[in-house]
Amino acid sequence: MRDDLRDLPLRERKKLRTRRALAETALRLFTERGYDATTLDDLCDAVEVSRRTFFRNYRSKEDVALAADSDLWSAYLDYVAAREMDGPLIEALRAALDVTLSAMDADWDRRFLTARQLSEAVPALQAHSLGYCQDTTRALVEVVSGRSETGVDEWEVRLAVEIFVAAWRTACLRWTAHGGHGGRDTLTKMVEETFAEIPAALTSTA
């Protein structure tokens, strides 16, 4: 999320700058040279860090390529865990997503679009993205279930979360197909439009 580096201790500022430099450089190299043609050593050399430093920040090439995704969902899970939620669950989850999207750093839109485009073009990133989506969905179910009132059915919570995730993914596909035109504002609008279409989708004729 947006942050003022001046408010962080020096050690944390350096760590965050290194993490950002790795993610930014990775996207540039993967786009210019190709994902498979860019080695981990190429990335480390470009940022002038050791492999050890890389692995302190990311677990793999796939992780650093999709850092914009993990930045969003880490912030989202933290936000949901910290806030009071009431009303229809899917709507509450969508509202939390609006807040999280608006709080991401100014360059997040571009990084996220590039990561989505790479993910659609590179099989290894497609697989990693799906795995990360499953992990995030599971984590969100756990967060919501832990905050729900006693008696709320776990499978109802899971179904609501799965619908929420499917609507988000659909909105992302629409946004990416339009080349990310309009940036975050358009993405947020597409998210709202997609969620509004859920009732009609659930009663669509086969």
Question: In words, what does this structure look like?
Answer:
The protein is an all-alpha fold and 206 residues long. The longest helix has 25 residues, at 123-147. The radius of gyration is 18 Å and the shape is globular. The chain starts with 9 loop residues before the first helix and ends with a helix. The chain has helices spanning 10-33, 40-47, 51-57, 61-65, 67-82, 89-103, 108-121, 123-147, 154-177, 183-196, 198-202. 76% of the residues lie in helices and 0% in strands. The chain has eleven helices and no strands. It folds into two domains: 1-60, Arc Repressor Mutant, subunit A, CATH 1.10.10; 66-202, Tetracycline Repressor, domain 2 (Orthogonal Bundle), CATH 1.10.357.
Task: Offer a few descriptive terms.
0% strand, 206 residues, 2 domains, mainly alpha, Tetracycline Repressor, domain 2
Tell me about the largest β-sheet.
Answer: none
- The CATH architecture designation of the largest domain is Orthogonal Bundle
Overall geometry? globular
Cα separation of the termini: 41 Å
Given as residue ranges, the uncertain stretches (5+ residues, pLDDT < 50) are none
Short recap of the structure:
This protein has helices at residues 10-33, 40-47, 51-57, 61-65, 67-82, 89-103, 108-121, 123-147, 154-177, 183-196, 198-202. The protein is an all-alpha fold and 206 residues long. The chain folds into two domains: 1-60, Arc Repressor Mutant, subunit A, CATH 1.10.10.60; 66-202, Tetracycline Repressor, domain 2 (Orthogonal Bundle), CATH 1.10.357.
